[in-house]
Amino acid sequence: MTNTRKIYKAEMWDKMQYLFRAYYNRTMHAAYYYDGMINEKVLAKVYEAVINEIPVLHSTYHNNFIKPYWVLNKNFSADDFFRVVETDDPEKELDDFMGYTVPANGKVQMRAQIIRSGGKDILATVVNHMCFDGSDMRYLNMKVVETYNKYMESGVLAPDIKKGTRNADQVYYELSPEDQKIAKGLYKNISTVENKVTFPFAKDDGSEKCRLVREKMCRDDFLAMKNKGKAMGATINDVLLAAYFRTLYRYVGTTDTITVPCMYDLRRYTGGKSLGLTNMIGFMPCTISPDVGETMADTVVKVQEALKGAKEDKFTGLYSLPLLKLAYTVFPHCISEIAIRIGYTNPYIGMSNIGIINPMEFGFSGLTLVDAFYSGAVKYKPYMQLALTTFQNEITFSVGIRGNDEDAKIFHSFMKDVIQEIKNFAY
Known about the structure:
By secondary structure, the chain is α+β, with helices and mostly antiparallel strands.
């Protein structure tokens, strides 16, 4: 009997994200708030059509000890990943949904849910980070909206989805031959951090669960921060990092330096896009001493100085990639995982500025997008990462944790204090 299974090889970042299962739940999050109701029957059809064009999204991961792979699932439907919920408490329903972990061994590698309340919808989506990163999650969600709108206009269901390679090597394709040679020789392990500073979580009480803790900074404060930063030649990211460091030092109470790796989109080397839906993320570490300065402006200057080298380095974010490729090329998968665990230090504290969400790119036909945010994976103690997205000059701060109610209180307080540092700076 002929084996008709369609098999795809697991790419380097697929395997790395699976390796990270010990540190976080590998699930990315997005939520879009609309001023009316989406046609759920049309949206279900659209999701089926779009996902059908992205093989990795309807495949099951097999962590083979020699060579991991994906097996395509041809028989799937919207019932496997999509539903509509009506509720009087949409934020609670959203919080519950955002705690979901997409299983790698499932049939479909994402979930979508319309949360309907008072004639208005929130569209919430979660995606397995093994499939791709936040930039391509945004691409996916844009294509869902685009396909929906075209279908509503013409009755034709024809998603236009990129189908290029998911290979990690594409990050080098547009570099000059000389730069390619240099980049492929960057074996320095930038994950190695000497300090072992961790965030002061609450003590476990058995009620821990995956959750997103969120706070928001308003438009006036954002614009004031932006203007003040611009006046001193600082980027928004510089200011956010400075506020983060000042607050971290108060909460952690350490005399050691703290290193915060910032997520760095490697699409800067590929014209701003990937050929296929994939992961293209590196690190840009920033290290600040406990002497952060008396004022926020002092700390902003220290962050600028700390990042000067990385901002001027034409290969920022590309370090360590050759090491990972070597480990996965030379050893069978089971051995490479051991080797990478020995050599790779997962940072205890991180930050990801996911960027700006453009409402024009996510407006379903007849509806207006009134709010939105993205967040990364839920970290497991003692790891944590602050994620930020900007919508209409408002910033949503979020931390994904597997923790209890006391942890949630701590992180609500923490993010409010980060926002207060920014306001102190802005005004």
